[in-house]
Amino acid sequence: MLKKIQEWRGKETSKSLSLKEEIMKHPIPEHIAIIMDGNGRWAKKRALPRVAGHHEGMKTVRKITKAANSLGVKVLTLYAFSTENWKRPKLEVDFLLKLPEEFLGTFLPELIEENVQVRLMGNKTDLPDHTLRAVEHAMDQTKENTGLVLNFALNYGGRDEILRAVKALADDVNENRISSDQLTEEIFSEYLFSNLLPDPDLLIRTSGEIRLSNFMLWQLAYAEFYFTDVLWPDFNENNLYEAINSFQLRGRRFGGI
Ligand SMILES: Cc1cc(N2CCCCCC2)n2ncc(-c3ccc(F)cc3)c2n1
């Protein structure tokens, strides 16, 4: 039995290595965005509390961040907490909003070592002070880093983002800081939380759900979508390679023929 497990693991490793070698021969998506779904289901399958799935999912964040950075991905955006998540039970929300400081408290030295730049995308005002302090400290400690931009969508909602951008733009028009005929998609993008970041090339959503859930509604206009039944806590480097391989096999036309 042990021999069979070792043989299986050997095959898995060689499959993973050969797939990584394969995708490295072709352009790697510059910006990958991930809806990290399936954490509660992962816990339920093991008769564990939902928060155990969130905690396991946090370990997957580290694993996939390292894998993306080693591939040369430029931006990795992770949907960590949506504006809709406030509707969850208070105990679960409190647990979730402690994860940023737990993750950074453990892995920030490693992120700095790996030249990763931490960034936040979302509405900061409603976040607890302890959460914001941890993230802003990490952003300050990594602002000079030039490797992977690890962009956490925290208290983020696509419609909220667009509405805030329109309001700020309307103020600028009313104050004659810009006229509506000067407005372009590029200028509008600067009003979004994701300003200065390139749009995602590849969106990955785990756990089999096939919907956007109010995520990066403007920015995903031309992205390739990849859906997998794998639950986020089980998502590994080979699953990432499979998603990138699928992306590379598709011909992107950006609306052209
Ligand atoms: C709210 C939340 C939930 C959260 N989960 C773990 C991953 C699965 C999805 C939900 C639960 N993770 N994982 C890492 C962070 C995080 C956020 C900001 C930051 F600067 C550093 C780490 C995180 N934040």
Automatic annotation (TrEMBL):
<feature type="binding site">
    <location>
        <position position="224"/>
    </location>
    <ligand>
        <name>Mg(2+)</name>
    </ligand>
</feature>
<feature type="binding site">
    <location>
        <begin position="38"/>
        <end position="41"/>
    </location>
    <ligand>
        <name>substrate</name>
    </ligand>
</feature>
<feature type="binding site">
    <location>
        <position position="205"/>
    </location>
    <ligand>
        <name>substrate</name>
    </ligand>
</feature>
<feature type="binding site">
    <location>
        <position position="86"/>
    </location>
    <ligand>
        <name>substrate</name>
    </ligand>
</feature>
<keyword id="KW-0808">Transferase</keyword>
<feature type="binding site">
    <location>
        <position position="37"/>
    </location>
    <ligand>
        <name>Mg(2+)</name>
    </ligand>
</feature>
<dbReference type="InterPro" id="IPR001441">
    <property type="entry name" value="UPP_synth-like"/>
</dbReference>
<comment type="subunit">
    <text>Homodimer.</text>
</comment>
<dbReference type="Pfam" id="PF01255">
    <property type="entry name" value="Prenyltransf"/>
</dbReference>
<feature type="binding site">
    <location>
        <position position="88"/>
    </location>
    <ligand>
        <name>substrate</name>
    </ligand>
</feature>
<feature type="active site">
    <location>
        <position position="37"/>
    </location>
</feature>
<dbReference type="InterPro" id="IPR036424">
    <property type="entry name" value="UPP_synth-like_sf"/>
</dbReference>
<dbReference type="InterPro" id="IPR018520">
    <property type="entry name" value="UPP_synth-like_CS"/>
</dbReference>
<comment type="function">
    <text>Catalyzes the condensation of isopentenyl diphosphate (IPP) with allylic pyrophosphates generating different type of terpenoids.</text>
</comment>
<feature type="binding site">
    <location>
        <begin position="211"/>
        <end position="213"/>
    </location>
    <ligand>
        <name>substrate</name>
    </ligand>
</feature>
<comment type="similarity">
    <text>Belongs to the UPP synthase family.</text>
</comment>
<dbReference type="GO" id="GO:0008834">
    <property type="term" value="F:ditrans,polycis-undecaprenyl-diphosphate synthase [(2E,6E)-farnesyl-diphosphate specific] activity"/>
</dbReference>
<feature type="active site" description="Proton acceptor">
    <location>
        <position position="85"/>
    </location>
</feature>
<feature type="binding site">
    <location>
        <position position="54"/>
    </location>
    <ligand>
        <name>substrate</name>
    </ligand>
</feature>
<feature type="binding site">
    <location>
        <position position="42"/>
    </location>
    <ligand>
        <name>substrate</name>
    </ligand>
</feature>
<feature type="binding site">
    <location>
        <position position="50"/>
    </location>
    <ligand>
        <name>substrate</name>
    </ligand>
</feature>
<protein>
    <recommendedName>
        <fullName>Isoprenyl transferase</fullName>
        <ecNumber>2.5.1.-</ecNumber>
    </recommendedName>
</protein>
<keyword id="KW-0479">Metal-binding</keyword>
<keyword id="KW-0460">Magnesium</keyword>
<feature type="binding site">
    <location>
        <begin position="82"/>
        <end position="84"/>
    </location>
    <ligand>
        <name>substrate</name>
    </ligand>
</feature>
